[in-house]
Amino acid sequence: MDIGSAVRAIRKRKNITIAQVCERTGLSQGFMSQVETNKTSPSIATLDQIAKALNVPLAYLLMSDDERMSVVRKADRKRTTSGGDQLKVEHLSATKGIRMMIVEFPPGASTGEEPRAHQGEESHLVLQGKVVAEQGEDSETLEVGDSFSWNACTPHRVRNVSDGTSIVLIAVHTDADND
């Protein structure tokens, strides 16, 4: 864990000097320098003082890089195809156990000829067009603004029943250990 670099980056981003942190915490400049260069590890109580001086939650200083906010710019989205290359998939974001994507269904396209099952839970929001969602014996027609969700371990599929392209935002949640 690189707490020192996080402390330094936050301090610099907020234009706070080491002297100001020391003034607010009562810590010495030498100690703060050692914290920022990871030459010493402060106690939780001391780290809490530093967090308060920087006006950030203590938990933020303890987070690893992979736990912090992740940004995917529109131009940088990973794009794939699915279902015989009928469906265009834009991968928006992913974190432990959660993936989000936008799926573009051409007229008549579906997630597959047969319903399929997999681990996890899904939530969907229809952004454009009209789709039919099928799970087991259930079938619903959904239009723009409608949403649906299901446990994905029951066979399911989505198909576009509109004359134009349908677009669906999908969030998939699985146990992080099973990703």
Characterization of this structure:
This protein has two domains: 3-67, lambda repressor-like DNA-binding domains (434 Repressor (Amino-terminal Domain)), CATH 1.10.260; 74-178, Jelly Rolls (Sandwich). The protein is 24% helix and 34% strand. The chain has five helices and nine strands, in the order H-H-H-H-H-E-E-E-E-E-E-E-E-E. Helix 2 (18-25) crosses helix 4. The longest helix has 11 residues, at 3-13. The radius of gyration is 24 Å and the shape is elongated. 18% of the residues are buried.
Tell me briefly what this model is:
This protein has 179 residues and is α+β, with helices and mostly antiparallel strands.
Task: List descriptors.
single chain, 179 residues, alpha+beta, 434 Repressor (Amino-terminal Domain), 5 helices, 9 strands, 34% strand, Lambda_DNA-bd_dom_sf
Share of helix, binned: 10-25%
Count helical runs.
5
Mean pLDDT across the residues is 91
Terminal residue distance: 23 Å
Give the CATH topology of the largest domain.
Jelly Rolls
Q: How is the biggest beta sheet arranged?
A: 6 strands, antiparallel
How many strands appear in the DSSP assignment? 9
Strand order of the largest sheet: 1-2-3-9-4-7
Q: What structural class should be given to the helix and strand makeup? A: alpha+beta
Portion in strands = 25-35%
- What is the CA-atom radius of gyration, in angstroms? 24 Å
The CATH superfamily of the largest domain turns out to be Jelly Rolls
What is the CATH level 1 assignment of the largest domain? Answer: Mainly Beta
| Topology pattern, helix = H, strand = E | HHHHHEEEEEEEEE
The global form is elongated
Number of domains in the coordinates? Answer: 2
Q: Could you name the ranges where pLDDT drops below 50 across 5 or more consecutive residues?
A: none
- Under the CATH scheme, the architecture of the largest domain is Sandwich
